[in-house]
Amino acid sequence: MSNISTADKQYLDTALRLASGGWIIRFSEEEFVNFFQEQGVNINDEAYIEYGKTQNDRFRAWLDKADNKTVGSVILEIAALFRNKELNVPMFVKFSSGLEKIGKKLLSKPDRSQASVAGNCIHITIRPEIYNHIQRYLETEDYFHAVDEAYKIVREKLKSITGKEKATEVFGDAGTKVGALDELYGTSTERGNPQYDFYRGCGYIHLAIQFLRNEKAHRRAINLDKNIAIHYLALASLAYDLISR
Description:
Layout: H1 6-18, H2 29-38, H3 55-65, H4 68-88, H5 96-107, E1 116-118, E2 121-123, H6 128-139, H7 143-162, H8 167-171, H9 181-185, H10 194-217, H11 226-242
Antiparallel strand pairs: 1-2
């Protein structure tokens, strides 16, 4: 995953939209696919249609999932396209230099840490759907709202699948309700089966999210300890992942 900042994402989005009133240099679908193929990227890969199938949707998904070197290199190619356009068409704002700075910055950065263990320190990668939403809170060290918003994303995902955002309605108060298993996992299983225990465990995690979220919703924001916040965020990422497979 790249670690392009929120501010750079916003600049990139502004440049791509304003330059043509649509997207980049008014790429046709074939030109769009070919541009990425030249950079060694299959932009039609299933991983990049998570947000939708438009050019902008696939680009955003790719931006979230690709590594810094790839993103930086592609942004430099986009900057070159902008520079050529700026030479031929007078433009009030020239974005090429700003795009070049973003591309070079990413090429000089290490990728966002993947899962690793060093002593009692564990580095993990949380779901991009959660990280992209809470990044601005993490950057300002507002960990209380980072956790609170992460839990909202988990509840919204549960609702998008089952029509219900409360874990108690989906899994029951004790995690034993099995009516939603077909919706969540495409299968159901009987009690006593190890797979049933796994599904029930997923239910417990979502019940924890619901009640921890309720507790935060009924109290004032506090300065949440960073280490504790990271544990909460890992729980949110796990809960989201378990119902997204």
